[in-house]
Amino acid sequence: MAGKRKTNEAGSTNNLRADVLCVLGVLKAATADQIQRLSSPHLTHRHTTKETPALRKEARTASHRGALNDLRRHGLSVDGGRTRGGEEVRLLTKDGLAAAGLELDRGPEEMGGMPKSAGRSGASHAMTVNETVIAMIRPNPDLALVAGEPAEAIAAAQAFVDAPDGIGSITSYATEVALPATGTWRNPGVGCAWADLVLVAPEAGLPLLFIEADNCTEDASVIALKFDKYMRHFRRKVKDTDGQDEPMWRTRWSAPEPQWGDATHPPVLLVFNQVGKRPALQQMKKVAALTREHWQGQWADGFHLYNDKMPIVATTLDLLREHGPAGPAFWRFGRADRQNLWDAIGNPRRDAVLARRAEDARRRQAQEAAEREAQRPVCADCGTKFTDDRWKASIAVDWGRRDSHPHLCGDCKTQALEAERQAEQAERERQEQERQEEEEQASKAGGWLGRWRS
């Protein structure tokens, strides 16, 4: 029957299963809670009358758990162990990954690999990647679907809607993407970089952003080595479809020129989650010191230039959750203060300097134009200002000859020349008339004298 939703054994609808496939197709491993917060954020503000947080979570994730069970029955997902908090993790099977590719409209080579440690050791890295995506997107609830809930729940949903937006949707992201320094996209060489996340959101001014998540468990030197691999990939060139050498990454993604505040290579965002014992701030400082060759710019009369560099930006998951991409949560390596994401990966100091220079140039041009306008000649006859062409012609010297009427505008000069032509014509006619009269008089005088003599 048209309009009737098809349900499955566990009670989920096809639309709900499609939402789950899309989320798992991007994240590869996720909990029902994470899937719900991404695909149905309004449910976060429902069931607020339940007595405990556990009961509220059970209620708001029930439909997505049902969808996951249906996917498992169809061989599209499997259990992936549990998080350290005891939540069940779900993974896609090979068939599930193919089904998710259809929902996402992505080919197999675009789906990426499975996340690190998925289903093992609590999948802590995969969970941090997922939480980073949620903090970046900041999914807005549909207020119409929260109607009828207690006032505090509606107020919380409204506050979330009123807060600065995040970036993109789940389809804007990809996980575990190979960045081959050797080999191909489909078969990358050994030792290539694998980006935890790739964000493509040109509508938000972010044509390409790579994201690395760390739980403060790895040594800073290990993290720094990732950027060596990134740079090897960024500098690799291959033949594009037009036969020209292009950076390999540009054959898969595009970015407008100029990009990222004049940096040559795409930016990388590091998100630290304070799970391990290494302090996140110290990790940032150590990684910055070890990767200086990749990000440090050159001072150029008021700002830095970043030719052949990559912007490296760091934050913590807590700061990202608190402020979102639009807030002061991001530290660009080499800078003192935190900025929003766009300023952090860009070059606002350069933009400000160039804007001031452009404004100064505009003012100089305006002043010069005003001074020139004050010197513009005025027609001595009608008082009209000379046009630029007339002004130029009035002072031009052509083969030693000057303008015949330098103090007249074009129209008045035309009229003056016409008047002079008419005057000259009248003078010629007068002179001709006088000559004829003289000839007639001479002729008459000659005839009278001849008769007298005869």
UniProtKB/TrEMBL annotation:
<feature type="region of interest" description="Disordered">
    <location>
        <begin position="39"/>
        <end position="84"/>
    </location>
</feature>
<dbReference type="GO" id="GO:0005840">
    <property type="term" value="C:ribosome"/>
</dbReference>
<feature type="compositionally biased region" description="Basic and acidic residues">
    <location>
        <begin position="49"/>
        <end position="61"/>
    </location>
</feature>
<feature type="compositionally biased region" description="Basic and acidic residues">
    <location>
        <begin position="419"/>
        <end position="434"/>
    </location>
</feature>
<keyword id="KW-0689">Ribosomal protein</keyword>
<protein>
    <submittedName>
        <fullName>Ribosomal protein L37AE/L43A</fullName>
    </submittedName>
</protein>
<dbReference type="Pfam" id="PF13814">
    <property type="entry name" value="Replic_Relax"/>
</dbReference>
<feature type="region of interest" description="Disordered">
    <location>
        <begin position="419"/>
        <end position="454"/>
    </location>
</feature>
<dbReference type="InterPro" id="IPR025855">
    <property type="entry name" value="Replic_Relax"/>
</dbReference>
<keyword id="KW-0687">Ribonucleoprotein</keyword>
